[in-house]
Design brief:
heterodimer, A: alpha/beta, Rossmann fold, seven-stranded mixed sheet, 30% strand, B: alpha/beta, TIM Barrel, eight-stranded parallel barrel, 9 strands, lyase (chain A), hydrolase (chain A)
Chain lengths: 200, 302
Amino acid sequence: MLRAGVVAVQGDVSEHADAIERAARLHGEDVEIVEIRQSGLVPDCDLLLLPGGESTTISRLLHSEGIAAEIRAHVDAGKPVLATCAGLIVASTDAKDARVDPLGILDVTVDRNAFGRQKDSFEAPLDVDGLAEPFPAVFIRAPLIDDAGDVAVLARWDGDPVAVRDGPVVGTSFHPELTDDVRIHRLAFFASSEAPAEAE
Amino acid sequence: MPEETDLEDLKRGTDLVKRGFAQMQKGGVIMDVVTPEQARIAEDAGAVAVMSLEAVPADIRKRGGVARMADPASVEEIIDEVSIPVMGKARIGHHTEAQILEAVGVDMIDESEVLTPADDAYHIDKREFTSPFVCGARNLGEALRRIDEGAAMIRTKGEAGTGDVNQAVTHQRAIKGAIRQLSGMNHEEREKWAREHEAPADLVHETAEMERLPVVNFAAGGIATPADAALMMHHGCDGIFVGSGIFGAEDPVSMGNAIVNAVNNWDDPETLAEIASNIGKGMKGQSNSDMSDDEKLQGRGV
């Protein structure tokens, strides 16, 4: 039984919980979802998810609830993390904004709301390294990675990185939890995004 | 390295993108603000978004007269001040106010009964807009009609500007209770329910099968304390709007922080006791049971 922690201080938690459960099923894994709103739960988790939401709110609560240091220890132990949109901002080394105190678990510098306001938000098919077919990516007031450090770039939008891997941590500017496609969750948590193909 | 993606395939303003914005607000507190200074206090307190308006509902009540969209220049000042999303209120049925708010760049439009309705028969056709809308509802029929018109988020109407949570509870119980009832019905009973409640049948079936609204469901109208906010989470809301409750309180900074913390710890009474301690007095308020139907805003736009 895998314990999957979904950081739940704010954001779209249930969507990610569903995606993790579906991804685990495709790999024949039993998974228990743990919603993390207080400290003391992260140390027992095998994998962690930082969801989309508002990065200022999530950052503030991760620190005030004492969860931030536990997430850093999780990454130091080499255990996987998927961080999406606001989660990517919170995971970065620098959000270039005093209103967010990032965790520094993903070696990138990000630009918050680089795509503009909500009316500029969009969905589009996106080619992602390791996926055979384009991924239906949903960008909502999304951040852009403007300086990727020592990380593998998995996808670019208009030349800029929007999905990266830094050791056990995968970060995306877009929201892989908003459609039924769980290939990004599989890529982040179960190493493979495709096999076993017949289970799709 | 993957190939460049074709930028021509990009789509804006789809249901997925509009409802997705609302999903990112879940577990959060959206605070009413009138000035850029208030917006800054709200952001620092941990608000997920601010609602920019000309006066908070309690003041709109006191003042009387026609309540309209805020001055676009003041909405723009608030947009420039904060990094979190900014929402704006348009009158029910006022297509043009909504267009102006979208042009200014608000992230979500609240078609709100707090303002004086512009149209007695129709709501805004929200499908025509790129921006997502939130609408109020007192029961499931109203909620599904608004979703059918294109609303990406539903909030309880409650009774805005009163600081009395009574009506928000009533409306949330009505919505949740009706969904539980529908889930136990067969196809033909749901069809009959749809006809009786003037709700689109396809949305009735979808809601019954999902056992929840197909869009995000916030609480609004009369929430004034951390305990009120936690109560609405207990009733199954996805998040909270606080109108007059923050800046009508004795100490808005403490009250704002406390309400954000209460939403994260809504199911932990011991932590709530700490959160609710020494934060100053809440807004004075006005009991809903003393009000005549004429004084209530919730009957606007059904």
